[in-house]
Every structure is written in C-alpha cells, then in structure tokens.
Write a structure and sequence with these properties.
This protein has helices at 3-15, 35-40, 53-56, 78-88, 92-109, 125-131, 135-147, 170-176, 205-217, 232-236, and strands at 67-73, 117-120, 156-158, 181-183, 193-201, 222-231. By secondary structure, the chain is an alpha/beta fold. The chain has 2 domains: 1-40, no CATH class; 42-236, 3-Layer(aba) Sandwich (Rossmann fold). The strands form 2 sheets. A 4-stranded parallel β-sheet has the order 1-6-5-2. A two-stranded antiparallel ribbon has the order 3-4. Helix 9 (205-217) links the parallel strand 5 and strand 6 (222-231). Helix 5 (92-109) packs parallel to helix 7 (135-147). The structure holds zinc ion.
C-alpha cells in the first residue's frame, strides 16, 4: 500500500460511514465488527489450552511456545468471504481492523507478554507490489497496536515467487514452500521471542518453512504463532 493511497483511503473513511465487514451494519465508536457478528463469530478458544490441536500440528516439525488462532475457518462460510476480500480484493483495512480485535483478545489473555516482536509472513516483493500490501502485515500492525509490540517485517525475505497454494494438494503445499525464506538480519532476532503472524493456518507448511529457516540461522530465537483463522479440516487430519 503506497503512502498516497493509504492517505486517500483514510480520507474516504472519514466521510464514509464505517460498516461491519460481515453484515454491512453501521459500526459505532471503536467497533471493528458489529456486536451481533462478534457474538456469532466462531471463536476457537485455542488460547485457553497451551497444548491445543493447532499447537499439536507443530509437534515433531518445529518447536513453538504457543500456537493460536482467533476464528475457525470453514469453507464456504461468510468468514471465508471476508478473508478473500482482504487477501485478494484490495480491502487491507479489514485485515488491520481484525488484527486489532485479535490483538485486544490476546492482550486480555496475557499469553504473549514475553514476546519481543511480531513478524508477519512475508510476501515475495513481486506479489506485494501487485497486491499493494501484505495482508499478514496489516493484520500484524493491528495486533501490534493493541499488544504494544514492534512489527519487524524487514528481517526475513521471501526469496521465491511461488504459485498460489489454494489449488494445491497437501503434499504439493509442502514441496512448494521449501527454502523460500531467507533471514536478512539475523543479529536482530538473536535471543528474541518472535510471534509469527499469518492470515489462515491450513497445513502449516508456510509458517513452518518460515520458522525453521529462522531457527536454522538463529538457534537462540523462540517462536510462537498467531493466525487470524485456523482451518478445522487441517486440525482434524491425523
Ligand atoms: Zn456485522
């Protein structure tokens, strides 16, 4: 997102009424989704259990302190539509706003109090350029606002421009993300507890590829994972 288009969007949002990204109702005050949609949201509650099913997906693949998601992701649901709009539809502000909601819950739960920084899963520069923003970074910025943490997007780069994973099988996704990240500023990650942030957790292939590369270069780093959504299918797969 260029600075100019962000300023323009901010100006538009000053005059246009703010609406709920799910149902379109008018929002009041600091709300980012309306109170009805908030009540109906499929919250995972994964943050209540340290060894939750999402955390278990990392066992034997990558050490993580905590792994949590805000919402269950169900194919064909209204939340899938919301994710598509901020991921492919240019509506980066939805990601930022949902990040604030997620960040406020995590602050209340106090499970990331010793985290030093948030690191959103990077996009390849070509994809970031064509999309205009990185939706995971927008999510991270919203979360950081509530958690009072820095977002350090520039410390890791995505070095391979790979194809979209949405149409790929389970094993293809793992092949597709091997060795696609590169740590550019290892010193700044030494001894730090890093919260990796992404939009949707499905197989975990991307975030595990990112985390393993960080731990290979910076063994003293500690990792946690927070995504906006978690696919119920991915968790139930043996
Ligand atoms: Zn609503």
């Amino acid at each position: 997102m260029s600075i100019l288009s962000r300023i323009l969007s901010d100006l538009v949002s000053l005059v246009a009424p703010r609406t709920c990204p799910l149902c379109g109702r008018m929002l009041h005050g600091q709300e980012v989704i309306c109170s009805l949609c908030e009540t109906m949201a499929p919250l995972t509650q994964l943050w209540l259990d340290e060894e939750n099913p999402m955390h278990q997906r990392f066992w034997g693949l990558m050490p993580v302190e905590r792994a949590v998601a805000l919402l269950w992701y169900v194919e064909g649901s209204e939340w899938q539509d919301v994710v598509h709009r901020f991921k492919y539809g240019g509506q980066w502000r939805i990601a930022y706003n949902l990040g604030r909601w997620w960040g406020a819950i995590l602050r209340e739960q106090a499970i990331f109090e010793d985290v030093d920084m948030i690191l959103p899963v990077p996009l390849h520069w070509r994809r970031r350029l064509s999309r205009g923003y990185n939706q995971s970074e927008e999510l991270a910025l919203g979360m950081a606002e509530e958690l009072g943490l820095p977002v350090r997007s520039g410390l890791v780069r995505r070095t391979r421009y790979n194809t979209s994973q949405t149409s790929q099988s389970y094993s293809e996704r793992w092949d597709n993300v091997e060795g696609i990240f590169s740590v550019s500023k290892a010193k700044e990650l030494e001894g730090k507890h890093i919260l990796l942030v992404d939009d949707v957790f499905t197989t975990g292939a991307t975030i595990i590829s990112l985390g393993c590369e960080i731990l290979r270069v910076v063994p003293s780093a500690r990792l946690s994972v927070a995504t906006l959504c978690c696919s119920r299918n991915a968790i139930s797969k043996g």
